[in-house]
Recover the amino acids of this structure.
């Protein structure tokens, strides 16, 4: 992996970024619903006054010894799942998500034209939220198990056939465009997932970077688009939160930004206004 100082700066005038999500997951449950609502919420209510209750998200993990099994998997639960709470800003572009074992922070577009405030602005906000969260725990926090950074890009379809998503190869450079066919009609859409191992200085795996592309519809226009997600998940660095999380998040940010540039096509770079 090249040194960060040697990497070409990636900057688009009109990036397709739709949502950014930060997450830390603890090894065990650290907060209950009472503390989340009575202790943590008052600390953030001034900026995040809107409240919604959501189903919990399942625990995230990475294994490197075996190939993951395809298809649905049975998960046995020792107790009923606890709720996940959304604390949102008035414009709903920023969300703090809290459940028993996890703390998340999202920025997202709601109307579709909001300007991304950039990682360097959002990271300190997440660090401050982690601090308030740790102050709200009834006891010492369990160690952080996993740290995540996720970028979701909404890319309008560039298909040649109206009403279809077209060829994903127009967006992702490592795919080959379908040749003309005699019997099959033009491709309607494509889905893709790739995984890349993230390793430490010894070469041992500590996480993964996922590139995921799925077809979707623009909720405002109902026009076809692809959601291209870059998700980095890994073990935390040394020390206590938030420092151990920041170490991985900074590395994940570099991987996501430069990785997105490498996997997307020159055609898209021109559309997005590459500097």
């Amino acid at each position: 992996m090249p040194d960060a100082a040697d990497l070409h700066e990636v900057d688009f005038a009109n990036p397709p970024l739709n949502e950014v999500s930060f997450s830390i997951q603890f090894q065990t449950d650290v907060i209950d619903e009472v503390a989340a609502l009575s202790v943590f919420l008052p600390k953030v209510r001034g900026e995040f006054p809107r409240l919604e209750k959501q189903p919990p998200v399942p625990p995230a993990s990475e294994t490197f010894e075996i190939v993951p099994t395809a298809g649905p998997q049975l998960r046995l639960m020792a107790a009923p799942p606890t709720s996940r709470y959304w604390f949102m800003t008035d414009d709903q572009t920023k969300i703090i998500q809290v459940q028993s074992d996890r703390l998340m922070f999202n920025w997202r577009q709601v109307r579709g034209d909001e300007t991304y405030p950039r990682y360097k602005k959002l990271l300190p906000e997440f660090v401050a939220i982690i601090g308030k969260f740790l102050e709200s725990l009834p006891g010492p926090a369990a160690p952080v198990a996993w740290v995540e950074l996720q970028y979701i890009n909404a890319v309008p379809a560039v298909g040649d056939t109206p009403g279809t998503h077209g060829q994903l190869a127009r967006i992702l450079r490592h795919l080959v465009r379908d040749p003309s066919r005699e019997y099959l009609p033009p491709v309607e859409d494509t889905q893709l997932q790739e995984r890349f191992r993230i390793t430490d200085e010894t070469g041992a795996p500590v996480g993964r970077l996922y590139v995921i592309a799925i077809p979707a519809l623009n909720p405002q226009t109902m026009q076809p688009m692809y959601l291209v997600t870059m998700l980095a998940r890994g073990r935390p660095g040394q020390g206590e939160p938030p420092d151990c999380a920041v170490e991985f998040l900074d590395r994940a940010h570099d991987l996501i930004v430069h990785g997105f540039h490498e996997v997307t096509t020159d055609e898209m770079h021109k559309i997005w206004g590459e500097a």
